[in-house]
Amino acid sequence: MTVAAAEVPSKGQIETAHDRGRALWKEAELATALALIDPDGLGGLQLRSHASDVRTLWLSELRKLIENTTNLVNLPISVSADRLIGGISLNATLSRGRVVTQKGLLAEANGQILLVRMAERLDLETASAISAALDHGYVQVERDGLSTEDAARFCAILLDEGDQDEHPPEILTERIALQAGLEGIPLGSAGPFRITASDITSARDRLAGVLVPEGLIGPIVHLCARYGLQGIRPALHCLRAAAAFTALAGRNEVEEADVTRTCGLVLGAITAAEPMPPQQSETADQPKDQEPDIEREDQGMPSDGTAFEDMMVEAVEAAQLLNMLSRPRGPNRRRGIGIAGKSGDLTPAKDKGRPAPAQPTGGQRPKRVDLVQTLRAAAPWQKVRRKTSRRDGIHIQSDDLREKRFKRRSQSSVIFVVDASGSAAMNRLAEAKGAVEHLLTDCYSRRDLVSLISFRGTEAELLLSPTRSLVRVRRCLGDLPGGGGTPLASAILLGDAMADRELAKGRSPLLVFLSDGRGNIALDGSAKRTEAASDGEQAARHLKSKEHPVIFFDTARRPGPPSRKLADDLGASYYFLPRVDGEQVSKLVRDRIGRR
Questions:
Q1: For a 10 Å CB count at each end of the chain, is N or C smaller?
Q2: Least confident stretch, 47-51, 188-192, 517-521, 559-563
Q3: Where are the beta strands (DSSP E) in 53-154?
Q4: Given a cut of 60, is residue 73 above it in pLDDT?
Q5: Is 173 exposed, middle or buried (0-12, 13-18, 19+ CB in 10 A)?
Q6: Strand order in the sheet with 44-48
Q7: How many angstroms separate the CA atoms of 499 and 511, rounded?
Q8: Average per-residue pLDDT for the chain
Q9: Rounded Cα–Cα distance for residues 159 and 115 (Å)
Q10: Residue 529's CB: how many other CB atoms inside 10 A?
C-alpha cells in the first residue's frame, strides 16, 4: 500500500511526537506508582485515554507492579446498588430460611485496586457511593432490616474515555488526587516501566516515616489559592504526592524539588485558569538593613518562598500543556456517537433506560413486577411466615411487591428568542445564526435540538422548528428580515409555548433571549409603550412560574434597568453582551446544559 507524500510526517515531526509521547508516558508511570504507594492519602488515579494499544500496555505494566500483592476488581458501568454496596444474598436467604448478607464490590475491593472503565459515564449514585468509601474507608448498609458495615479501603483507578465535554462526576474526581493521560503517545514511545514492584513495596513501607517540613506547607496553600482552588483537599493531595515521591526516592524528608516534581500531577488537570499574581508581602517596605526573619529559617521555610511558588507554577503550566496533548479528541469510535440524552434531565421511562430503584406498590398490582426486588423484600420474613402458615415454599404477600422502573436522560432543546427589531437587528441575527451553528456542531453528537424565534414588527415568529440539521439551519437563516417595532411580550409567550411543547415531548427546554429588553408593542399590536411594558412584565412572570431555565443576553449598548428587570421577571441568568459573539454565546449555553 502506497502513502501520499503529504501523509508522510517529517523526521522532525516524528522526533517531536516521540519526545511528547515519552514525556506523557513518564508522567503516567510516576502517577501510577504514587497512587499505589499511598492509596489512602491520594485516592487513586484518573487516567484519560480511549481504548488503544498504549492503554493495553499500561494495564499490562500495572499488573506487573501489583503482581502477587494486589488484585484488580473491575467495576461494571451498569452495576446495581445491591452489587455495589452489598445487602441480602437472595439465594442463600431463601434456601436457608434466614437472612444471609453478601459483600458488595466496594467491600470486595478492600486492600485491592478498583478499576472503573468508562468512568465518564458513571451515574451520580454510583460515584457518590465510591466517594463515600474513599472518605470513610468503609461501606455501610442500612436497609431491608439490615445494618452492616464492611471495610472498603482501595485504590480507585478511573479510566476516563470521555471527549472534551465528557468527564467523570466531580464528586468523585475531586477525591482522586492524581491525573495522567495516554492520548497522543505513539506506541514506540511507550515501554516497560522503570519502576518495579519491589520499589513500590519499599516506598510503601518507608512512607510512614517521611517528614514534611512546615515551611513547605504555606507555599503549597498559596499556590492553590492563586489558582482559585477551594478547600484544603488540593493542598493535602500535593503534600501526600510529594511525600510518596520522597519515599519512592528512598529519602525520609520532603524537599522543594519533590513538591515541584509532583504538584503538576495533582493540579495540572484541575487548574484551567491563569494563576493570580502573588499578593505583595507586608514586609516588602522594610528597610534593607533590617535583620532577616530568623524564626522563618528555623522553621524550615525556603529562603525565597516566592521563587519556590514560581517554580511550582511553571511545573503546573507544563503539566497543563501535557494534559492538553493527552486529552481525547473527537468521538470515541469504539463507543460510537449520537448517544441520546447525555445532557438533559433525568426523567422516568416506562420500558427502557437505566434501571431505577424499585418502588413498593402499596399492595396494588404493579404494571411490571421487579421479581428480584420483590423476593429480596420478602426474604427476611420467610422463617416467620413458614411457621405461621405451616407450609414450605416461598411466601410472598402484597406488601412485598415491587414495581420495575427505569430512568433516562431526555434531550435538551435550546430555544433562541432573538430581537430582530431596530437598527442593530441584522447584527443580532447574524450573531444568533453563528451561535446556533456553533451549538449544532456540538449538539449533533449529543442528540440535542435547537430552534429559533425572532420578533419584530407586531408579533413573534417561529423561524426554525427544533432541529439538529446544519443544512436546514443555513437554508432557513440565509436571509432574515429585520427592523420595526419590538413585540417583546409576544416573543415571551411564544417562547413559553414552545418550552411547554418540548417538555410535553419529554425534552428539557432551555430558553435563550437576545434582546435589549425594551419592548414597545403590546399584545394587541398597538404601539403603546406603557401597555407593552405591562404585557411584557406579566408574560415574563408567567414564564418564570413555569420554572423553565432561561438565559438572558443583554444586547443594549449600555446595561440598564429595563433589561435587568426583565431578566429578574423571567428568572433568568443575566449576561451583558453589547457585541454578541456566537462562539461565546454557544459556550455559555453549553455550560448551562452541562450543569443540568
A1: N
A2: 559-563
A3: 72-75, 86-88, 101-103, 113-116, 138-143, 146-151
A4: yes
A5: buried
A6: 72-75, 113-116, 155-160, 44-48, 178-181
A7: 7
A8: 77
A9: 8
A10: 13
Q: Which residue has the cell 535583620?
A: 291
Distance between CA 577 and CA 455 in Å, rounded? Answer: 19
Cell 398490582 sits on residue: 365
8-state DSSP, 372: H
Which of 284, 277, 273 lies closest to 309 in space, CA to CA? 277
- Is residue 106 within 8 A of residue 151, CB to CB? The reply is no
Which pairing describes strands 101-103 and 86-88: parallel, antiparallel, or unpaired?
A: antiparallel
77 with 118: CB under 8 angstroms?
yes
Long-range residue pairs from 78-86, CB within 8 A, at least 24 positions apart, any chain: 78/354, 78/355, 79/105, 79/126, 80/355, 81/125, 81/129, 81/357, 82/376, 84/126, 84/129, 85/129, 85/139, 85/141, 86/139, 86/141, 86/148, 86/150
Q: Which amino acid is at 173?
A: T
Report the b/e string of 482-497 with b at 16+ CB within 10 A: beebbbbbbbbbbbbe
Grid cell listed for 378: 420478602
C-alpha–C-alpha distance, residues 113 and 72, integer Å: 5
State the alpha helices, DSSP H only, in 425-557.
Answer: 425-446, 470-476, 488-504, 529-546
- Cell numbers that stand for 70 in this block: 494486589
158, β-bridge pairs: 46, 116
Nearest Cα to 118, choosing from 407, 408, 334?
Answer: 334
SS3 state of residue 273: coil
Grouping H, G, I as helix, E, B as strand and the rest as coil, residue 403 is: strand
Cell numbers 420595526 label which residue?
484
Pairwise pLDDT comparison (591 vs 594), residue with the higher score: 591
- Return the SS3 of 11: helix
DSSP notation for 338-357: --TTSSS-EEEESS-SEEEE
Interacting residues of 560 by C-beta distance below 8 A, sequence separation 6+: 517
Output the CA–CA distances (angstroms, integers) from residue 158 to 57, 74, 131, 237, 570, in the order listed. Answer: 16, 11, 12, 17, 41
Query: How far is the C-alpha of 252 from the C-alpha of 209, rounded, in Å?
Result: 6
Which set of grid coordinates corresponds to residue 422?
431596530
As given in the structure block, the three cell numbers for residue 78 are 451498569
| Nearest-angstrom CA–CA distance, 62 and 279 | 43
**Cell 488484585 belongs to which residue?**
71
Q: Hey, CA dihedral for 346, 352, 356, 362, is it positive or negative?
A: positive
| pLDDT tens by residue, 192-216 | 999 999 999 999 999 999 999 988 8
Task: Tell me how far apart the alpha carbons of residues 383 and 374 are, in angstroms, rounded to a whole number.
Answer: 16
Single-letter amino acid, residue 70 = T
Residue 196, all three cell numbers: 518495579
pLDDT in tens, 268-308: 766 544 555 554 434 444 444 444 443 433 444 444 557 77
Q: Quick one: cell of 522?
A: 403590546
Q: List C-alpha distances in Å: 111 to 38, 65, 115, 403, 449.
A: 12, 15, 13, 37, 46
